[in-house]
C-alpha cells in the first residue's frame, strides 16, 4: 500500500525491510564511524572516575535533545538547576524538564544491567522524561505537522494492538541474531521507533535515548556520552527529510548515511571534549596539590568539582569528604587559589568551575 500522509500509517513495514541496506557507501561510512566510536569508548576507560563524564556530558546532551523539541534553556541555567535542590522553587520549569531527560538517560542506563531494551523500558524512559504516567497510545488523534505551514506530514499507526505489534517486531529486531552492522541497526531502530511514535508525547527524546542505550547494550560504548543531538540540531532539515524519505519511498541509504555521519562526527567531537576535560583535570590536580594546604587537598575533592560545573557544601558532605563547616572552608580555599568562583544564589553560595563550564559550553 502506498504511503498517504492523510491516513494513519498502519502498514508501516516490519524490520528488517525488503530493501538493500548495507550498500557500498553505507559500509564505508560504517567503518569510519565504528573507528571513531571505538576511540571514544577507549578514552572513556582511561577516566578514573566515571562520574566526571556521566553527570556533566549527558546533561549537555539532555539540553540539546530537549532543544530539538523547543524546550530551550541555557547551559548555565541548566547546570545551576542541576546543583539546586530538587524541590527548589527557583528552578525554571524548562530546566526541570531537561533534568528529567538526564534522569531518564541514567535510569535507562542503569536498567540495562538488569534487563535489555524493551517496550516496558521505552515506557519507563518516556514517563521519566515527561513526568507523567505513560503508556502506549490507545486513542487516535496524534499527528505530525509542518511547524511552518501546519500541514499534516505524518500520521503514525493507530490502535493499541497495532502499535504493540509494531513494537514487538522492533524488540525482535533489536535482539535478533543477524549479521547487520550494529551502527546500521541503530539507525534503523531509531527510524522505526520514530515511525511507530508509540506515545502521545516525548517520542523524539525517548528515541534519541534508545540510540545511546542500544550502542551501550552492544558494548560499542561504556557510558552514555555521545552528543548526537548537537548534530541533529545543526542538520535538522536533513534529519526530518531523511526520515520522511524512508517512510514515503523506502529510501534507506540517505537515512543510514545521515545517522552514521552523526555518530562519527559526534564521537570525534566528544572525544576531543573528554581529552580537554582530562587535561584540565590533571592540571587542576597539580595546581591544587601545589597551592592548597595539605589538610584540604585530595584527588577525591578535585574529582567532585569535575562531576558538574557548580558545586556546593552539600555535595562534599553527601560524599563524606567533610562535615559542613569544613566543607565550606575547602570550597573557599579552592576559590582563593582561583580554581572555583563563588556565586551568591539566595542565601547560599554555589561555586562555579569556570574552566569546566567553558569546555562543556563550547
What does this structure look like?
60% of the residues lie in helices and 5% in strands. With 362 residues, it is mainly alpha-helical.
Short description:
This protein is mainly α and 362 residues long.
Keywords:
16 helices, mainly alpha, 5 strands, Arc Repressor Mutant, subunit A, Fic-like fold, about 350 residues, elongated
CATH homologous superfamily caption of the largest domain? Fido-like domain
**Whole-number total of structural domains:** 2
Radius of gyration: 22 Å
**For the terminal residues, how far apart are their CA atoms?**
47 Å
Structural class, please?
Answer: mainly alpha
Q: Averaged pLDDT, please?
A: 90
Spatial arrangement of strands, main beta sheet: 3-5-4
Oligomer: single chain
Low-pLDDT stretches are none
* CATH topology value of the largest domain: Fic-like fold
Number of strands: 5
Query: How many strands, what sense, and barrel or not for the largest sheet?
Result: 3 strands, antiparallel
Secondary-structure map with pairings?
Elements lengths: L23 H22 L5 H4 L1 H13 L6 H9 L9 H19 L7 H12 L13 E2 L6 E3 L5 H16 L6 H15 L6 H15 L10 H7 L1 H14 L2 H40 L7 H6 L5 E2 L1 H6 L5 H13 L4 E5 L2 E5 L1 H8 L1
Amino acid at each position: 500500500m502506498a504511503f498517504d500522509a492523510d491516513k494513519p500509517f498502519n502498514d508501516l513495514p516490519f524490520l528488517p525491510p525488503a530493501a538493500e541496506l548495507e550498500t557500498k557507501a553505507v559500509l564505508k561510512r560504517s567503518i569510519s564511524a565504528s573507528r571513531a566510536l571505538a576511540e571514544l569508548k577507549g578514552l572513556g576507560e582511561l577516566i578514573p572516575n566515571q562520574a566526571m563524564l556521566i553527570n556533566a556530558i549527558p546533561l549537555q546532551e539532555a539540553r540539546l535533545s530537549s532543544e530539538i523539541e523547543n524546550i530551550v534553556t541555557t547551559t548555565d541555567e541548566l547546570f545551576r538547576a542541576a546543583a539546586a535542590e530538587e524541590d527548589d522553587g527557583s528552578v525554571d520549569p524548562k530546566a526541570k524538564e531537561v533534568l528529567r531527560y538526564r534522569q531518564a538517560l541514567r535510569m535507562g542506563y542503569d536498567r540495562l544491567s538488569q534487563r535489555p531494551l524493551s517496550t516496558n523500558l521505552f515506557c519507563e524512559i518516556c514517563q521519566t522524561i515527561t513526568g507523567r504516567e505513560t503508556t502506549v497510545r490507545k486513542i487516535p488523534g496524534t499527528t505530525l505537522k509542518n511547524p511552518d505551514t501546519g500541514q499534516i506530514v505524518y500520521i503514525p499507526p493507530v490502535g493499541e494492538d497495532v502499535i504493540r505489534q509494531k513494537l514487538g517486531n522492533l524488540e525482535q529486531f533489536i535482539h535478533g541474531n543477524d549479521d547487520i552492522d550494529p551502527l546500521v541497526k541503530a539507525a534503523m531502530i531509531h527510524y522505526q521507533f520514530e515511525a511507530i511514535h508509540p506515545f502521545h508525547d516525548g517520542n523524539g527524546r525517548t528515541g534519541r535515548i534508545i540510540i545511546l542505550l542500544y550502542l551501550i547494550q552492544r558494548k560499542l560504548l561504556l557510558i552514555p556520552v555521545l552528543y548526537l543531538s548537537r548534530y541533529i540540531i545543526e542538520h535538522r532539515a536533513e534529519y526530518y527529510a531523511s526520515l520522511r524519505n524512508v517512510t514515503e519511498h523506502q529510501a534507506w541509504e540517505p537515512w543510514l548515511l545521515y545517522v552514521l555521519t552523526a555518530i562519527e562526527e559526534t564521537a570525534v567531537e566528544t572525544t576531543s571534549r573528554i581529552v580537554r576535560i582530562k587535561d584540565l583535570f590533571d592540571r587542576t590536580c597539580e595546581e591544587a596539590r601545589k597551592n592548597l594546604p595539605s589538610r584540604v587537598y585530595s584527588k577525591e575533592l578535585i574529582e567532585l568539582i569535575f562531576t558538574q560545573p557548580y558545586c556546593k557544601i552539600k555535595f562534599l558532605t553527601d560524599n563524606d569528604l567533610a562535615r559542613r563547616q569544613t566543607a565550606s572552608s575547602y570550597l573557599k580555599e579552592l576559590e582563593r587559589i582561583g580554581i572555583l568562583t563563588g556565586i551568591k544564589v539566595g542565601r547560599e553560595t554555589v561555586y562555579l568551575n569556570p574552566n569546566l563550564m567553558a569546555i562543556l559550553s563550547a
